[in-house]
Amino acid sequence: MDIEKTFALLNETEPLKISTSREITVAVMGAGSRGNEYPEYGKLFPGTLRVVAVSDILKSRREAMAEKWSIPADRVFGDYREMLEAGRGGKLADILLIALPDDLHYEPAMEAMRQGYDILLEKPMAQSEKECRDLARRQRETGVMVAVGHVLRYSPYFRALKKAIDSGLVGELVNIQHQEPVMYAHMAHSFVRGNWHDGKATTPMIVAKSCHDLDILKWLAGRRCVRVSAEGGIALFRADKAPAGAPERCTDGCPHEKDCPYSAIDIYERKRWFLYVFDLKRDCPAEEILERLRTTDYGRCAYRMDNDQPDHIVVTLLFEGGVTASFSLDAFTPWGGRRTRVMGTEGYIEGDGKTFTLHRFRTGEAREWSYAPPEGGNYRDSGHAGGDLALIRDFLRAVDTRDFSLLSSSIEASVESHVMGFACERSRLSGTKEDV
Ligand SMILES: NC(=O)c1ccc[n+]([C@@H]2O[C@H](COP(=O)([O-])OP(=O)(O)OC[C@H]3O[C@@H](n4cnc5c(N)ncnc54)[C@H](O)[C@@H]3O)[C@@H](O)[C@H]2O)c1
Predict the structure, then answer these.
(1) Mean per-residue pLDDT over the chain, rounded
(2) pTM above 0.85, yes or no
(3) In 98-196, which residue ranges form alpha helices assigned H by DSSP?
(4) Secondary structure class of 397 (helix, strand, coil)
(5) Strand 118-121 vs strand 95-98: parallel, antiparallel, or unpaired?
(6) β-sheet with 366-369: strand ranges across
(7) How far, in Å, CA of 347 to CA of 81, rounded?
(8) Distance in Å, CA 101 to ligand 1 centroid
């Protein structure tokens, strides 16, 4: 193998900018963080994408999106059902972006496929294996295009890593070790206090947070997963671990506030992280943040929440042909950013979500891959290491040309990763090995 030549191919990243034969229109359900992220593509590259309808139960959010995209008043809806109702007389746009909370994906996606929309459906696709399979069946029946928000598949980093494996740079693939470091404050914010604290109302942590990772492992391995087993639980965020005298809220004069890494005052008011959940800007007055901490779950003691999501999970996976992988989700890290190690018969790769190093055994050489921005802009630093905008680019192109093969995260591919996630959760809860 010509290593030089093969390695050079890894950097063949597609430009972010494409041109479409027409401006593709989008109806957005859920004008929150994700609902705003993907349409940014149309602002970066005018003429490709336009938001023409929006639905959000929060007036401030739907109005902000309506203003940003000059959406006429009769296309601005509150509850998503109103938007679906309006679509019964003819769809409102080419694409429907479903960026609602996890428990509101299945129903609108099923109905929207019936109405003929091509859909960008945020992960998790649905809340159970059965619902995932229903969605796949409805997609086959209707023939619409559905992309699931597995953004990592589109990031230049993971694409290069996959090319490295597929081109044989490590010889035959034997095992992958993969870690998702959630980061301590992100864990407390999203999975202890926030939207995903209840795995039954949303989806279990391994699906909610890690369906991306299971999906990327299956994709990197390039084969079907046959068996999984999982362990894990809540090590810290539970009442019996609460420090003595900790009150209900961090703002109630907690004696541990000055030392506790999970102090809401420290995370939101001092560090000014995650303020988007309050629709506040980083430079807003402290009192505005403290008011939110006194009145929402985000100010509650992280040990006294009604949370059930594990803060550590380890999974083993067996793929066809005997390839194995291990995955760990870890709340207790100072940073996010996936870490991956790939072991093959002739080489080894170690990566941190941005760069990776290939080691070849026979020659002892080590080669580093890092992102070389293609013509048309640097997009690695957009959401999910560039994956967010690259996903919408590929989806627009697929919709424009009706070429399904341009979509890496098709509904069928994604059903499999979700099924793996539900199997992991069964295993974690029952101590069994689960066939997938
Ligand atoms: N692909 C990824 O990497 C990724 C990353 C983060 C989140 N997500 C997923 O994207 C989805 C949205 O997450 P988010 O972070 O944008 O959440 P968000 O809370 O910022 O946005 C959701 C929006 O939906 C609105 N909403 C709730 N109920 C509604 C209803 N009945 N009708 C209309 N609007 C309603 C809310 O007001 C909110 O503005 C979730 O399922 C989440 O798991 C995916």
Answers:
(1) 95
(2) yes
(3) 106-114, 129-142, 156-166, 184-186
(4) helix
(5) parallel
(6) 366-369, 356-360, 347-351, 339-344, 173-181, 324-330, 312-319, 225-233, 434-435
(7) 53
(8) 4
If you average pLDDT over residues 424-429, what whole number do you get?
A: 98
- Which mutation among 29, 57, 111 tests ligand 1's pocket best, with the greatest number of atoms within 8 A of CB? 57
The correct CATH number of 11-150 out of 2.40.160.210, 3.20.20.110, 3.30.450.20, 3.40.50.720 is: 3.40.50.720
Q: Does pLDDT of 385 surpass 80?
A: no
pLDDT of 378: 64
Cα 109 from chain centre? 18
Cβ neighbours of residue 52 under 8 Å, at least 6 residues apart? 25, 26, 27, 69, 71, 75, 92, 93
Q: pLDDT tens across 20-73, in order?
A: 999 999 999 999 999 999 999 999 999 999 999 999 999 999 999 999 999 999
**Predicted confidence (pLDDT) per residue in 141-164, tens digit:** 999 999 999 999 999 899 999 999
Query: Which pLDDT does position 147 carry in this prediction?
Result: 96
- Looking at domain 152-238+307-377+409-435, its CATH architecture is 2-Layer Sandwich (3.30)
Q: Are 409 and 211 in contact (CB under 8 A)?
A: no
Write out the E strands in 213-353: 225-233, 312-319, 324-330, 339-344, 347-351
CA distance 78 to 421: 32
pLDDT tops 80 at residue 127: yes
Indicate the top mutation candidate among 56, 80, 111, 197 to test ligand 1's pocket, ranked by most ligand atoms within 8 A of CB. 56
Q: What is the whole-number distance in angstroms between the Cα of residue 32 and the centre of ligand 1? A: 6
Cβ(138)–Cβ(425) below 8 Å: no
Q: What are the C-alpha distances in Å from 388 to residues 101, 154, 184, 300? A: 18, 8, 23, 32
Q: How far is the CA of 342 from the centre of ligand 1 (A)?
A: 33
Kindly report, residue by residue over 211-266, the tens digit of the pLDDT: 999 999 999 999 999 999 999 999 999 999 999 999 999 999 999 999 999 999 99
Structure tokens at 341: 């190690």
Which mutation among 34, 215, 297 tests ligand 1's pocket best, with the greatest number of atoms within 8 A of CB?
Answer: 34
Q: Is the Cα dihedral 129, 130, 131, 137 positive or negative? A: positive
Pick from 223, 221, 177, 210: which is nearest to 351 by CA? 177
Pocket of ligand 1 (CB under 6 A): 30-35, 55-58, 61, 79-80, 99-102, 104, 122-123, 149, 151, 195, 384
Residue at 295: amino acid letter? T
Q: Where are the domains of the chain?
A: 11-150, 152-238+307-377+409-435, 239-299
